[in-house]
Amino acid sequence: AMQRFLGPLLCLWALRLPAGTGAAARGLDVASYRERVRAMFYHAYEHYLESAFPYDELRPLTCDGQDTWGSFSLTLIDALDTLLILGNVTEFQRVVSVLQEGVDFDIDVNASVFETNIRVVGGLLSAHLLSRKAGVEVEAGWPCSGPLLRMAEEAARKLLPAFQTPTGMPYGTVNLLHGVNPGETPVTCTAGIGTFIVEFATLSHLTGDPVFEDVARKALKALWKNRSDIGLVGNHIDVITAKWVAQDAGIGAGVDSYFEYLVKGAILLQDKELMSMFLEYNKAIKNYTKFDDWYLWVQMYKGTVSMPVFQSLEAYWPGLQSLIGDVDNAMRTFLNYYTVWKQFGGLPEFYNIPQGYTVDKREGYPLRPELIESAMYLYRATRDPTLLELGRDAVESIEKISKVDCGFATIKDLRDHRLDNRMESFFLAETVKYLYLLFDPDNFIHNDGSDFDVVVTPYGECVLNAGGYIFNTEAHPIDPAALHCCRKRKEEQWEVEDLMREFYSQKKTKKFTLKRAPDHGEGENAKDPEDASSEKAGEKRNSKKSSHSLLSCPSQSFNSKLAVLGQVFLDNT
Amino acid sequence: SCSRAKDVTMPAKLPVHFFSTRSPVIDLFRGQLDYADQLRQDSEIVLYFFYAPWCGQSIAAREEIEHVASRLSDQVLFVAVNCWWNQGKCRKQKHFFYFPVIHLYHRSFGPIEYKGPMSAVYIEKFVRRVMTPLLYISSRSKLLDFLSNYEPGVVGFFEFNASPQPPGYLTFFTSALHSLKKDYLGTIRFGVVTDKRVAEEISLVHSGSVYLHRHANTSLIYPKDIMNFTAENICKWALENREMLIRWLRPHGGKSLLLNNELKKGPALLIFIPYNPLAEIHPLLDEITKVALEYYKCNKSRAAEPDLQHLGDSDSPAFDSSVTDAHLKFSETFPIAKYPCCNTVVLPQWHSISRTHNVCELCVNQTLGVKPNKVHVPHCNFLEIEAALDSFYLQEHTFFQVISNTIECSNFLSFYSPFSYYTACCRTVNRHFLSFISSEKTIFQTPKVAFSSHGKKDNTQFSIPHIEDRNCFIPDLNISSTNITGLSCRTNKTLNLYLLDSNLFWIYAERLGASRSTHLKEFAAIVDLKEEVHYVLDQNQSLVGPTLENFIKNFSVLYSPLKRHLVDDPSVHFHEEHVVTEVTTNTFHETVFLSAKNVLLLYYAQWCGFCASLNHIFIQLARLLPPDSFTVARIDVTRNDLPWEFMTDRLPTILFFPHQRKEQSVKFPEDFSVNLPNLLKFILHHSSLSSSEPCTKECLHKESVLQQGHISHLEREIQKLRSEISALHQAHDQLEAQLSEARRGEQRLQQQKHTLEKQHKTLQLHSEQLQATYDQKNQELLEMAEKLQELADASENLLKENALLRILVASRGGKLQSKDEIKETLQSEQTLSEDNDISLSTATAALEEKRINNIDTIETEHSSGNRTE
Predict the structure, then answer these.
(1) Does the annotation place A473 within a ligand binding site?
(2) Which residues, by range, are in coiled-coil regions (chain B) (predicted)?
């Protein structure tokens, strides 16, 4: 018995050794940084549970909690899938049952439509889709039904009244019990209108109720219709009159996730219309706002520069570019942003590019994830050690600057590293998650399709968890394969069955298959966005007739082999 | 308290020691810049390490600095300054955009910023150069050593006999420090000669002259009469005129166009070697230098440059003055070249199906050639070769006849110039089919071919570059060592040569296909950015001079035998359990072309969002199709290069290679969405075309195999349906359970309703009872009130009587005062007690009233409770 007892103990000890000695090797010790990120997570998470739960957020300087975006134990919902990514199955299961009992959306609270969607609906959806992987016993209809899905649906239904406007663009705030408050401001930021398609389309595909996807699409189309003549959108719009209230156009605060969701929606739904919208915007953004691999703010009608600043929130852009294959440009912009980090140990909310310094009243860094998120995507594409170095810098900075006894505190001012009494829920949902994924190349989230699960549902057999997870803008991963499991599964199966029958009988009816070319009415998604925007006459419309599919990436150029360690290449054109 | 907590902030933590207190580095962690400046007075050489405590790079560099400090602390003062803390002097005075920043001071000269790699050996090397920016050259042999280095050398001649500080010496010394400021890689070395005889070797006569040594071009003497003799000017002059035969590439890690700018100059040979800057000798580097010198030596006779043979031979008493002669005679005329310039020509074939082709080596022989007298006129220029080719093609019929395994040569006169004739030596080689894979096991089965001019081996002559067979390569040192001389000028594909330290930049080598497993980090590749190709020196050959020379030669010949290197992903292993076959560069041909199956191939990249979201569709497809006649495969084209003809410029791309017609691959149309039914239709459409031949036995066999497949497919389907049924059953059970649960719930509710109704009734009863008691109490109260009234009246009467009695008593009092005193007090006590009685009874009445009110509210509560129930 003694022998058997000693065996595993020795094994553990031996396993731990390489992490300590690996530091001697050149380059970064990825495993030790991964463990430091893990420790970071638990330091914050345990203090939240201890001092702040069931409030939304932890206040790390006073060691207590507060409600910020509602009253949903937001940090817990947001951190749920991070638990699974860190491999903590038991805690995931415990939290799932806690949430089922404890969270109530029938409350008289004015909630941000945008934040509730990305944090609550997104968090619950991803937890629902991952729950089987986490060992939660799922009910028979999963993934098309389940308690977390019902919660997500309930939360989303509470948001629907906001979409009841003449334009289809939603109000920014809604009361969860009474709907839109009388006298509510009709001014909503662009991102607050165009950041629903990922969660809402997933909901519609899983539950079979098309209302969510419909309102999200309608809002997206309304924005597209109201873009300026030079193809830009502003910062805030009146959802009743469709007049732009703030006319600054850029890729950062107020707009950011609108562009992100056009791309991610296009990928998730294989939707050419969304992609062609994005590509048109991308052209205008390059034309008017891009200078020397920075993106500035311009007037949306004239294209003149209004603010030569870089915003911390803009740092998601390189990651988005890498998703559609524009890796060279992404890397160039990323390296610009990285220099700002090196200057301050974080990214200030605003950074004045010509002056090379922070902007007054915007010197804070609330431990945002965007630059780390881009580093994770780019590391997938390039394996460039520079990206791991950013991860290293982030771990060192956050630990040195913002770690306090009760968690991690927002940096109020990057010039002197004064701390603020707040730890936003995205710190555990996004910042820690992306850091961990950067240092864990073998995580299941990075699955390239070599692993998958087969699930038998009442709707038929379904392949799941084959990789290609789409992160919503709060870093909650959505499995794109799950969207094909529920609603249309049966119809497609019958069609496939017919084709297979034909396949095995082809030798007998030789001529038959020849006639059967792929049918052309394929999917309503295939149509161009021109239908939606035909009123915009006089614009050149030839570009979309390019020879390649919109839903594709360019393959990388030859010089990308050498584009690592800060080296960038200029186009030959 | 809530709003106050919101405003709680906390100042940054106070700075603490960054270096350990035992470290040889002085750590001014409060940013005491003024103290740092004071410290500078104490030491000749000072290194400042400006850091920020949160900065990852500072933390990583800390260890390296400590290492350097432990080795040099007796000569150099190491001062670390926290330049982040906002209360510190450093932060207030300096404005850095990155950390750490390393500044060096040589006495008052500085700051010299170190911008090299954050690695101890490199930092130490640089510090040592700041310590001794000038190398003292005491003898001829030391001079030879100094000059033979591949890095440019500047030599100053100063006679110290006349004065302890000869004029200009300080300026020269400062210029050496200046060059470290400008050129942080430190590629220009500065030396000083004090001995007149040594100075004469490089024809320096006057004290105060400065000499820039160059290998391939004329060496220069600083033109004092044109430029002022200042430190900046000397440094600038040396930088502008130095020769860069072979350059180190050391990307600093930040955003940079270094490789872009260098590689756009033309094809580049990148040589990766492990390099220790502190090492005394670099044998491999010397060897590479030798090749580079030969390669660029365009204008000298072969015998004229033996200096490199003296490398390391520093004690050689007989110093060969021809070295310096060669330099001095640079501007003079050169001996007429006797060697030809050559080009390999593969003759066009009459029939494309021909299995052989003729290869000729065409050389220009200049018997009475023009005399090149300028530095950069190449001996064998492009025009000459063009002319030779023209003449050659005029005669080509002669050569087409050749089908021979021996080399046959013939001479013919130039069409244009009477002074030269051409030699063409031809032989026939077997034509080989292009292979996809550029590995050691290629199909490149050419027999070993070696050309030699005039058909005879003559080592004193220039032999012609030869096509080598990689399978049986034996380096021929004699031939190759002479062959490369001046090749850079004879070819129109001139290479630029670069060195990279594989300790720091091995990642580039890996990107170009260097094996990850090799422990010896040596690698060479030719990168042609414009043509988007690169060639790799076979890693099984050791990286030595001759192999490098052959590599260069093979690249330079007109029909280069080098094959584009295709990088493949070594991490992919074949997995039996993977339903989708993962293809790599190496397995591409085998899986797609050699297999007897229909192949559907997906080109993808892991990072491309549009590819990753299709994974599940391809997995489903692979599970659906019969595995014995279909392969569903995919290739990650970011990690696996493919021959041009199989490349694609968009991802994902789906190709179908039908069985037996692999060359007629078809592409899945881009305007269709990629889903299971569409993919099936696509496969169905294209795999059916072949089946139109009449039915034979074989066909019947096939048919039966197909039907077998169908059967197993159907069996799988049945299996699936069964599991579906069981899933439905489960769902059914679940629903049933939920339904019964709901029914039970309903029942429970019903029961609850009943009990509630009962409760309601009892409550009503209770309420009636209460009403009755209320009435009763009310009655009692009324009665009580009446009684009270009576009592009040009675007491009033009593009071009146009392008053009367008092008056009566008073009237009688005078007389009976003393006698009746006791009697009187008794009477008054009596009235007092009567008063008390009255107040008590009013209090009880008030209490009674209160109680009734209470009962009232309880009653209303009860009735409202009943309503909600």
Answers:
(1) yes
(2) 711-801
The mean per-residue pLDDT over the stretch A505-509 comes to: 55
Query: What pTM, to 2 d.p., does this model score?
Result: 0.78
Q: Rounded mean pLDDT of chain A?
A: 88
Give, as one character, the DSSP assignment of residue A187: E
- d(CA B430, CA A79) in angstroms, rounded, equals 67
User: Which one of A81, A153, A370, A479 is the catalytic residue?
Assistant: A370
Task: Count Cα neighbours of A422 within 13 Å in the Cβ-side half-sphere.
Answer: 16
Nearest by CB to A566, which of B251, B511, B575?
B251
pLDDT for position B449: 35
Beta strands in A103-234 (DSSP E): 110-112, 173-175, 187-189
Can A137 be counted among the known catalytic residues? no
What letter does residue A168 receive in the DSSP assignment?
A: S
Residue B809: per-residue pLDDT: 84
> Above 80 in pLDDT, residue A86?
yes
Which residues lie across from B581 on neighbouring strands?
Answer: B633
A260 is catalytic: no
> If you count residue pairs, one on A and one on B, with CB atoms under 8 Å apart, how many are there?
323
HEC states along B608-675?
CHHHHCCHHHHHHHHHHCCCCCEEEEEEECCCCCCCHHHCCCEECEEEEECCCCCCCCEECCCCCCCC
Query: Across-strand partners of B211?
Result: B155, B221
Instruction: List the 614-673 stretch of B: residues with Cβ below 8 A of A.
Output: 614-616, 618-620, 623-624, 634, 636-638, 647-653, 669-673
pLDDT of B855 reads 52
Question: Is the CB of residue B456 less than 8 Å from the CB of residue B383?
Answer: no
**Cβ contacts of B572 on chain A, cutoff 8 Å:** none
Question: For the ranges A182-196, B87-101, B185-199, which has the lowest average pLDDT?
Answer: B185-199
Q: What are the start-end ranges of the E strands in A336-402?
A: 350-352, 357-358
The pLDDT tens digits of the residues spanning B751-764 come to 999 999 999 999 99
Mean pLDDT of B539-560: 86
A26 chain-B contacts, CB cut-off 8 A = 503
Read off the pLDDT of residues B263-275 as tens digits, 9 standing for 90 and up. Answer: 999 999 999 999 9
Closest Cα of chain B to A117: distance in Å? 23
Report the DSSP beta bridge partners of residue A478: A470
pLDDT band of B401, cuts 50, 70, 90: very low
Predicted pLDDT at B716? 84
Q: Which residues in chain B are contacts of A517 at CB distance < 8 A? A: 681, 685
**Chain B: residue nearest A388 by CA?**
B56
> Which tokens is A515 given?
């006639």
The residues in B 820-859 lying below 8 A from A, measured between CB atoms, are: none
| B132-244 to CATH, choices 3.20.20.70, 2.40.30.10, 1.25.40.10, 3.40.30.10 | 3.40.30.10
Q: State pLDDT tens for residues A318-346.
A: 999 999 999 999 999 999 999 999 999 99
The CATH number corresponding to B26-126 among 3.40.30.10, 3.30.830.10, 3.40.50.1820, 3.40.50.300 equals 3.40.30.10
In the set A29, A78, A115, A440, the catalytic residue is A115
Residue boundaries of the structural domains of chain B: 26-126, 132-244, 247-299+485-565, 342-370+377-394+405-430, 595-687
Q: Does B107 touch chain A (CB under 8 A)?
A: no
- pLDDT value of residue A269: 95
Domain B247-299+485-565, CATH homologous superfamily name and number: Glutaredoxin (3.40.30.10)
**pLDDT confidence of B583, banded at 50, 70, 90?**
very high
Which fold would CATH assign to domain B595-687? Answer: Glutaredoxin (3.40.30)
Q: How far apart are the first and last CA of chain B?
A: 41
Q: How confident is the model over B314-351, as pLDDT tens digits?
A: 333 333 333 333 333 333 333 333 334 555 555 544 44
